[in-house]
């Protein structure tokens, strides 16, 4: 079976400066893999390279294949890939709208489905993200009323509503207190039948969440 992610000698440069690599690893479908390394080692940059979101003047070299897509090919359908390989950033971003509208935002823009199906998939995503019991009675309340930990799980629900084949989680608990961190970690470990790539500076966290770890400092 084609792996979810296959990198071969990925190098990311900004002008004459090398930010990442050369980096090679394989992530099989259904597995959970961690990326670790000190601040500035290129963990977040690697995630962005996987879905073709490197901002200028950053440039990628090497082989980058994600869900069977050659990310560096000029003909790659990158918007389509990003609906299948969903990046959840380390800062939980919520829109000035309701909790329900925030959770449905991505799905509403990529899928042509009925209103009932949109609601069903959005609610299922809130359940999978471990947030449903906390928000079921206030789905139409503003999302900015949520705690930071709840916002992080709301962003995860927004991604899960797309039914992604691959989740890319960038420092999913970096802004959270210990209690909220435990809740988010429980949510991640509870995600079933999905491929997950987690970036974290916390080696203990990656040991709890992932079957394997790639250390960018040793790549």
Describe the structure.
This protein has 219 residues and is α/β, with parallel strands linked by helices. The chain has a single domain (5-218), classed as P-loop containing nucleotide triphosphate hydrolases (Rossmann fold). The protein is 36% helix and 25% strand. The chain is built from 8 helices and 9 strands. It has helices spanning 43-50, 78-84, 99-110, 115-128, 132-135, 148-160, 178-190, 203-209; strands spanning 5-14, 17-27, 32-36, 58-66, 69-70, 85-88, 166-170, 195-199, 212-215. Strands 6-7-8-3-9 form a 5-stranded parallel beta sheet, with helices on both faces. Strand 1 and strand 2 form a beta hairpin. Helix 3 crosses helix 4 (115-128), helix 3 (99-110) packs parallel to helix 6 and helix 4 (115-128) crosses helix 6. The longest helix is centred in the middle third of the chain and has 14 residues, at 115-128. The chain starts with a strand and ends with a strand.
Which CATH-level-2 architecture? Answer: 3-Layer(aba) Sandwich
The name of the CATH topology is Rossmann fold
> Taking Cα atoms only, what radius of gyration do you get, to the nearest Å?
17 Å
Biggest beta sheet summary: 5 strands, parallel
What proportion of the residues is helical, as a percent range?
25-40%
Query: How many extended strands?
Result: 9
Number of domains: 1
Question: How would you classify the helix and strand content by structural class?
Answer: alpha/beta
Counting H and I runs of at least 4 residues, what is the number of helices?
Answer: 8
Broad shape: globular
> What's the overall average pLDDT, rounded?
89
């Amino acid at each position: 079976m084609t792996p979810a992610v296959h990198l071969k000698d990925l190098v990311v440069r900004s002008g004459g400066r090398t930010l990442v690599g050369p980096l090679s690893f394989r992530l099989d479908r259904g597995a959970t893999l961690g990326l670790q390394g000190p601040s500035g080692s290129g963990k977040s940059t690697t995630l962005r390279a996987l879905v073709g979101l490197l901002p200028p003047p950053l440039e990628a070299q090497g082989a980058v294949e994600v869900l069977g897509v050659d990310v560096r090919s000029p003909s790659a359908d990158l918007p389509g890939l990003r609906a299948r390989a969903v990046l959840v950033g380390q800062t939980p971003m919520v829109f000035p709208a309701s909790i329900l509208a925030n959770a449905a935002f991505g799905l509403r823009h990529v899928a042509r489905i009925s209103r009932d199906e949109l609601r069903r998939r959005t609610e299922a995503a809130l359940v999978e993200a471990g947030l449903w019991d906390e928000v079921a009675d206030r789905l139409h309340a503003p999302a900015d009323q949520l705690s930071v930990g709840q916002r992080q799980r709301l962003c995860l629900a927004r991604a899960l509503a797309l039914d992604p084949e691959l989740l890319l989680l960038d420092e999913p608990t970096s802004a959270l207190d210990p209690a909220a961190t435990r809740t988010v970690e429980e949510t991640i470990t509870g995600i079933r039948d999905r491929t997950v790539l987690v970036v974290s500076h916390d080696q203990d966290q990656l040991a709890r969440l992932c079957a394997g770890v790639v250390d960018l400092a040793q790549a």
